[in-house]
Every structure is written in structure tokens, then in C-alpha cells.
Write a structure and sequence with these properties.
Helices cover 26% and strands 39% of the residues. The radius of gyration is 17 Å and the shape is globular. The chain has a domain of 105 residues: 2-Layer Sandwich (Alpha-D-Glucose-1,6-Bisphosphate, Chain A, domain 4). It is an alpha+beta fold. The strands form two sheets. Strands 5-10-9-8-7-6 form a six-stranded antiparallel sheet. Strands 1-2-3-4 form a four-stranded antiparallel sheet. The longest helix has 26 residues.
């Protein structure tokens, strides 16, 4: 039903370092390392290192997808730490849709789902309006045109992604126990199919 990824933890120092690696049967791999460093005033610096590759399409995967994707996930992490600190996601979706190469069509659909008629900018107020779900007010928390938009609502963080090989993806991390995950998944799957 959802996205599953298996990795091997290669380093673990609680509160300081986490590293893991995913190997493919063809010998390709990807490895990630998170290093945390406490700073004066109670702040923390995160250093993120991502290396390796999971396919032979190195240019397209690494430079376009992984570079944009890593930025998106770091911005998502920052939004989580700012608005949902210490809370655990009760709903996690990663739904892969069709490949749609037409950027204008994709971003028009993203804007329609967010009830935006003007320019899509970081900080813009939106009304998430997907058939099958209650309309919900939110804000464009982060934006990486032409690849992704991250929307924060009172319940969580939504991701609309035009990813690797023009594949559309919807991601959601919800922090409310009052939502029905099957209803959310069904509505977003229908939206992707349309």
C-alpha cells in the first residue's frame, strides 16, 4: 500500500550521528549521513551528506531529482521542527502517480488543488481542496519550482512533487489522530489519476 525502503544502519551515535546505506543487486547504492552539532543558545546544526546512486541514469537522477529532493526533504524537516516539534506522524503517505512531462499542466493542477488563482509563492495562504477530503486552510511552506511545493496545514505537511522522469508524487505526513488515512489515500490517488 505504501512506500517501503530497506537500509542498513552503518553508524549510530544517539543525538550526534546517524548513517545508513541502501544497496541494490546491480552494485549501485545510496548512502545518507546526518550529523548533529549543538551550538550556543540551544540551537543545533544539521549536516546532511548524501552520496551514491541507484541507477545508471546518473545525470537525470542525481542532478535533477536528488538535488531537488534532498532540498525538499530538508525544508520539510525544518517545517516539522518549527510547527510539529516532538510530535510523531500518525499518517504517512507516499503515493506515486503518472508521468506528466507538461510543466504548465502539472503546476496548473497543483494550483487548483491549493485553490490558488494568483502566483504561487512561499508564504501564500491556500485552501487545500481535493475531492473526497474536507477543504483545509494552509500555507505554502516551501517551494522548489519546477519540482515541488510543500503545504503546511493544521494537521500536517503535504507535498506535491513533479519528480524523477516527470513522475507525479503526493506525500503527506499527518500529526492528527482525527484523520482517516484510507480516506486521505483514496482521495489523493483519485486526484493523481485525474
Amino acid at each position: 500500500m505504501g512506500f517501503v525502503q530497506k537500509s542498513t544502519i552503518t553508524a549510530w551515535e544517539p543525538g550526534e550521528r546517524l548513517a545508513f546505506r541502501e544497496d541494490s543487486p546491480d552494485g549501485t547504492f545510496t548512502a545518507c549521513e546526518y550529523l548533529l552539532e549543538g551550538r550556543d543558545g540551544g540551537s543545533t546544526v544539521l549536516r546532511f551528506v548524501h552520496s551514491g546512486i541507484l541507477s545508471d541514469d546518473w545525470d537525470a537522477e542525481y542532478y535533477d531529482s536528488m538535488k531537488a529532493g534532498d532540498l525538499m526533504y530538508l525544508k520539510q524537516l525544518a517545517a516539522y521542527l518549527k510547527y510539529f516539534p516532538g510530535r510523531h506522524a500518525t499518517r504517512n503517505l507516499f503515493l506515486v502517480g503518472p508521468a506528466v512531462p507538461d510543466n504548465e499542466r502539472v503546476w496548473s493542477r497543483f494550483a487548483a488543488a491549493l485553490s490558488l488563482t494568483g502566483e504561487m509563492n512561499q508564504g501564500a495562504p491556500v485552501r487545500l481542496n481535493v475531492p473526497g477530503l474536507p477543504a483545509t486552510d494552509g500555507v505554502v511552506e516551501f517551494l522548489g519550482t519546477p519540482y515541488f511545493v510543500g503545504v503546511r496545514t493544521p494537521h500536517g505537511i503535504h507535498l506535491l512533487i513533479k519528480g524523477y522522469r516527470n513522475t507525479l508524487v503526493v506525500g503527506y505526513h499527518g500529526f492528527s489522530a482525527d484523520e482517516d488515512e484510507k480516506e486521505i489515500e483514496s482521495a489523493w490517488r483519485s486526484w493523481l489519476a485525474s
